[in-house]
Every structure is written in structure tokens, then in C-alpha cells.
């Protein structure tokens, strides 16, 4: 069976700066369970790319394995996609980025994919500050293999089968902060208003951008007792701030009360506007971000929003000084030293 | 043995302690032989250790040009008390034992059938140098000096090697030359010289070079246009990427911007290394990795994905003996089966097998073409012996008109003109389909890469028919691969014998020599050197047209024999094995001995 979405849309649909309707950014029909949090995130990705008026073919979407990792098929059908192997999307993304620094790399993973089998690659891609968006669709369980606990399942939470998780949860945003990530955000699949500006900012961020999105699995982990269930999340959300993304050249139209807003200019001139809810929240202060994350954990709260950002950051390409010309466009003239150099080398070995 | 046979025809073994700077002194000896126009084959026999354990360095000198290892030491240079007792035993009757006579040898170390040459290395160093490090380093040079007098190495050749070694650090030349002189003088004052085993200048080398296979692979990757290298350190493959890095930094840094036309990432493990290589190749950059057996094991899952998703990949496997606590610093050809059938499901991987540094260079560059042409992983199987030891090799050649074969890749213009693009649609009936790089065209040519649950247009499906069709196309691609992989090297135009030898990789050297030895006893053998898997018709014809086939290989389980039987469906009873798997390179003597024990 193949799933192709009906492409008929009303001609008067709004268009973005490129003249594209939102349809252009959609993918094939989702095969996930109805109500799955992952689908809401896909929709937010579509909306973000549409609003940013990105050229879809300049985006490469990559994933590991899992229900979450299937989603790249459900957005951006004009983009190349790569559903790789379980937990190894970061390495594939790294190689892809090395080959062509000019594309936008959009990675999607699950909590199993990232926090268990892929933990090794995750920490190293953070460390290398690869210029990519890394969305974890975090449901605290292995959806695709039918609901086993993942390493982000909270200690004491109950699986659908009734067993209680005995182990400490891995908190990916805290880990990323510790590893020196230059952009760390957390959100909830049901909160589009917050998620969309975060995705947009993550795309614009010139380094590694993690968005950990709590995304309930309605089939296996939406039961009372699970901290990744819709009800629990709704009741325990605590936003660091409300976020608004303002692209370059667009006037800041929303007025915030003086003293309660913080404007973060991104590298390309666009800006992120935060309306502070939490007191003393400074998303450019790693230490206070780490403390706040720990405090929220103690309080059983889920802190959402932009947790940390380092707007000017040095990505992998800058660190290893790759050419400004994408490597995949180079030919013999740039790559091959030629016969004369080889003859000189032969002489060195005589 | 007649005196003539002793000139330019012997084995010198240096017995050292790891980490004492002996390697460069020993290399100097080998290079001097080479510079005197004679074939020299050095082999470093070293432990998995950084400092303290015994190491040996063999140099076989051969007027006839035999480049394989040979057992039997004609001259032992013994500077390691730890291994001395055994080192004495390994000297051939009538051979020489050069040792540090600062202290007397124990009685039980004396053999009547060998000649002892004592040089008070330690004493000379203590008298000449006050710095302990200098005492250590110059001790090595003094024994090279002693050998120079004993074996007739031309002083000017050694002096020139110092000049090259210390270019830019000229201050070091004089003290080294002095140490050399000390060794020579001592011999001249105390012993009759030169010995019957000695060198005489020849002109056998021509324009050949002395280089190791790993350097050749690294250089081949630079010439072949690899731009992304991802790797995880493992002996004996490490120096492949180190060489790539050295040459890339030499030739691929843009002089205007100072930026690199290459990227090298030391990955967190081999899984990540191959993942990066696959990601880069998917995105249109030529990319490779190098590893050894344990790394290949870790790369298995990704190799399956690359096979099914049809992503060009170059993996250089420098084989060694087994696991990390196996004999990681010893050589073997024991990854044949695990590489040929690497990964899950119905996978078969293309193998390319070089024998010499020249082939390492050529086949690395060629494999980058082949990987993109076939859109599949290419596993190049070398081994520790080829990779880490210097070999006399034909020089490298590059045709400046050569264009990289980037395979079937559609650009924006081509996409614009065509109808619906099908990533896995077999347009040319050769099993190889067209691909596009991400970012090529705004509305055409994008596709979703995944394993096999997709149709010819890369649309998701779990339909059995689509799966089978795809698998059959991959089989057709395998047939196409047979026409493109390096062909076997045949040793005869027409069959001359009922018996055919099959060998590959570094077994070449010992095999060729063994065939000469057998020919001297009027035993003629036909031979074929394999250079790739899948096997083409030449391979099956060779096997069919001989009564008996002997596959010579360096592993316990006769892996290549199994692969031939399995793939070509040939009669197992006519295919015999000659094997060596002790971690040391196979020798011609071993082959001849085992040959006589075969019932053919
Ligand atoms: C090497 C390997 N081991 C196991 C699996 C089976 N597997 C598929 S998805 C999955 C877990 C996915 O969990 P998660 O990443 O959280 O994604 P979700 O389905 O919850 O979105 C597992 C264990 C696999 N595909 N590959
Ligand atoms: S099993 Fe859970 S995660 Fe998977 S699609 Fe269904 S709801 Fe989503
Ligand atoms: Mg999950």
C-alpha cells in the first residue's frame, strides 16, 4: 500500500514569500496512530518551514528508526530524506553536512533512538556542534516495538502493562547543556504556539539545536501514572518564557511589557523574542539553565521553552576549516594533485 | 652454499626493545640496501605495546627480487637481552650473531655452529655520550655502522640518508655520522671484514619506490578525489587515514583562503565512522573509512543499509589476526568471508584485493570510481603486512586526463527535461539506477532513502512483489559488478599444467617464489592471482580447466576456498588448500613443503 495525500487544495490558499502554499511543505499521509503526538510535531515542522519560506529542496531530513523516525516521510516531500539505522542518524547527518554545508539538516529521532541505542552518537554530535536541528519526539517508550520503557521514562512511571520503571530517567536537555550544546529547547507536541517559533529559531541557529519535544504515545504510554501522558504534561507544564520568532526584516509587531521581554538576535539578523514567565530567566546563561532544569525535575515540572542559546557559535565546519565551497561540488581540478606532484612524491620514496 | 649465493642474498634480523628508537636505524639499513640497487624487504614484527616488549625487524635482501618473508636468519643483530636466548636459536648454521659484548655472554648462549661478533655498544656509548637518551639512540646507529663495515654498505649512501633525515636539523648530521664511524672503526680494528654475506652494488631497482601500502592507500584516496574521511583508530589501519591527512594537508588546502578541500573526522567508534561515510556519499561527496576486523564487525549493520539503499561507500580493511586481544599486530587474510557477506539479509559485498603498494594506490582511486558507478559498498582487503611494511613497488602513475567516474547522477537540467524520476528504476537494464544529490532541483528528483520497503520510485511499500523485483535487480547489478571489478592476473596465456595455484593479496610474494622453486624441480604450475569478488568468468574457467586447484591463503579456515566453492559451485574435492595462519607472512618454503604433502 502506498500513501499519497490528495493534492487538491483550494486555489485561494495563502502563499509564503516564495509563492508556495503550505501543501508544498507537506509529506505523504501519516501511518501513525490517530492522536499520536509525533503527528502534531510533523505539522509544526511543516508550518515552520512554510512560514520561513524555505526552499524545500534545500533541506535534508534524516532520522533513525522508530515511529518518530518515520515522520520525515510525513513532511517536506520535496526534500531528500534518509531513514537510516536505529540510533545512528547523527553520524549520517554529520557525513551529509560535511559533503554539503549549504543545506539545512533536519534530524528527527525518538527517545529510544537517542537516549539508548544512539546515546553514543548523540553526545558526540552535540560535542561537534554540527549545524543541524535535532528534534527528539520523546514519548518515554519504544512505540514501534510496542511500548517497552525507554531510558527517558521517569522513575516510578507505569507502563501500559502496569510495570513500574525502576530506573532514573535520562534528561536529554540537561545532558545537552552539560555537553556544551549551543541551543537547547524543550516543548510539548500539543503546544504549537510554542513549538513553531522554537523550530524556526533552531533552523536559523548556526550550530547544533536540540528540541526535546514531549510527545505522548497514545497507544502505549498515555496512561495515568506516565509522566509523558497528555494529562500529566498539561498539568505540569512550566514554561521558561513564551517565545516568538521574528524573521529578519519583519517588524516586531507584538509589544511586550517593558522588563518582561528579552530579545535574542540570531546570527542572520532575525530575532527570538522571549516573554519571561520565570523569574531571573536568562537563556544565555548555561549555569542558571542547568540549575533550573534540576529544580524543575525535583518539582516534577516540565520546563519548556528556549532553555539555552549561544547565538554566536562555532560549528563543526568552522572548527575543521572546511572550504566555503561544498565538498560535493568539487572536481578533479580542485581535488587531484596531478602527475607532476606524484612524480615528486615517487622521488621521495626512492 | 657457494660464496656467490651469499652476496645480496640473506636475511638480517634486528632484535630490539619496543620504543627505543631502533625502528629508524633499522629502516636506514633497509633503505641503504635499496639505494645500492638491490631488493630489500623489511618487516616489522612488533607487539601490541608502546614500550618495553621485544620487537624484531627483518630485512630480506634478494638479488633475484623475491619480496616475501624468508625463515632462517643469516645475521642477527641482538640488542635485546630479554629475547637473546631465543634469538640465538633462530640463527642459521653458519650465520652470524652480532651482540653487545659490554657484558660477557652466558656460557649456555654459545653455539658452535654460528659466528659471534661482539661489539661493546653500551661501553662505547657511555664513553662517548653523557646524555642517557643519546646513549640509547646512538647505540642503534653504532650497530648500523658495524653492519656497514661487515656487509659492505657504502658509507656515502648512509651519509646521504642522514642528510635527508635531518634536513632542516643539520646539527644532528655530524653526531650521527660519527656514531656510524664508531661502529665501522670498531669492526675494522677487531674483525676480518667484509663477511661472505655482504652487499654488492647492483642496478636492479630502476625507478621503483620503497613504500608501505597504507601510505599508498591514503595517497590513492587523495588522488581519487575522496573529500570526507571518517575513522576510528585501530592497528594496522590507522596510518591509512594518517597518510590521507598528511597528503590532503599538503595538496588540498586552498592557498587563498587557507581552507580545506577535505574533511577528516575521528569518529566516536566504527559505527559512526561508516555512518558518516554513508551520509557523505549519499550527499555526493566521495568518502571512505579504514579499519580492521573488529571495526568491520561493528560496521556490519550500516554495510547492510548501504547495500540495500545503494549508497557508494569505500571501506579499507587492513586485516590482522582476530580480536583486540588476539594478535592485533600480526598479519592475516582472515576477513574474507565476513567481508564478502557482511551484514544482514541477502547481502553480497564487492571486494577489491591489492597485493602491492602500487595496487593499493591504483585500486583505492579505482574503488572510489567503482563505488559510485555501482552505488554499493566496496571493501578493499589489504593486510598488516602490506599496510604497515615497506615494499619495493612500481612507482605511482597518474593520467592527468583522467576524469572521475561519478556514476549515474542526474543534474538539475536532466531532471528538468525528464518525466517522473524513479530512484530505483532500472532504465539501462544493468541493475544500476540513477540517483540525485539532495538540493539539486526545486521540484524534481527528491526521494526518500530507506532499506528495501519501497518501490522503484522510492515510495514506501511492503509489497512482496516490489521487494522481490528489487532483490532481483540487485542480483543483476551484481552481474554488472563482475564486468567492472579488477580482473585476475593470469600467469600463463595457455594452461601448461594440470595444477593451478590461486592466491591473492600479500601471498603473491611467497607464491611466485614457490613457483620458481618448484620449477627448479621441474614442476610446472599454472597460477592466477585474484583481485576481486565477485568472481568473473576467468576465475571459473581457470578452476574448470585444471584437474587440481590449490588455493594458498593466510587464514585457518580456507576462507577463499569456501567462497570460490560457494559462489562458483565447483567440485570441492579438487580444490586443495595451502594455509598459514600463525600471524607471520607466509613464506615460499612453507608453500613448497605443504605442496609436497598434498595428494593431488
Ligand atoms: C539494531 C536495531 N535494534 C532494534 C530495533 C527495533 N526497534 C525499532 S524501533 C525501536 C525503538 C524505537 O523507540 P523510539 O526511538 O523511542 O521511537 P518511537 O517509536 O517511540 O517513536 C526498536 C528497539 C531496530 N530497528 N534496530
Ligand atoms: S505506537 Fe505510539 S508512538 Fe507509535 S504511532 Fe502509535 S501512538 Fe505514536
Ligand atoms: Mg519513543
Task: Describe the model.
The complex is a heterodimer of chains A (350) and B (600). Chain A is an alpha/beta fold. Chain A has one domain: Thiamin diphosphate (ThDP)-binding fold, Pyr/PP domains (Rossmann fold). Chain A contains 12 helices and 13 strands. In chain A, α1 (37-51) packs across α7 (192-204). Chain A is globular. Chain A starts with 36 loop residues before the first helix and ends with a helix. Residues 250-259 of chain A have low confidence and may be disordered. Chain B is of the alpha/beta class and 600 residues long. Chain B has 4 domains: 9-190, Pyruvate-ferredoxin Oxidoreductase, domain 3 (3-Layer(aba) Sandwich); 211-393, Rossmann fold, CATH 3.40.50.970; 412-482, no CATH class; 489-597, 3-Layer(aba) Sandwich (Rossmann fold). Helices cover 38% and strands 19% of the residues of chain B. Chain B has helices at 22-35, 84-89, 121-128, 132-151, 155-165, 173-190, 213-223, 238-251, 270-282, 293-309, 336-340, 357-374, 384-388, 412-417, 464-484, 507-520, 537-544, 559-568, 588-597, and strands at 9-17, 39-45, 54-62, 73-78, 91-100, 115-119, 209-212, 228-231, 263-266, 287-291, 313-319, 350-352, 377-383, 390-393, 448-449, 489-490, 499-504, 526-530, 532-533, 548-553, 575-579. Chain B has a 7-stranded mixed sheet, with helices on both faces. Chain B has a 6-stranded mixed sheet with strand order 2-3-1-4-5-6. The longest helix of chain B is centred in the last third of the chain and has 21 residues, at 464-484. Chains A and B meet through β2, α3, α5, α10 and α11 of A and β7, α7, α8, β9 and α9 of B. β2 (80-83) of chain A pairs parallel with β15 of chain B, so a sheet runs across the interface. The complex binds thiamine diphosphate, iron/sulfur cluster and magnesium ion.
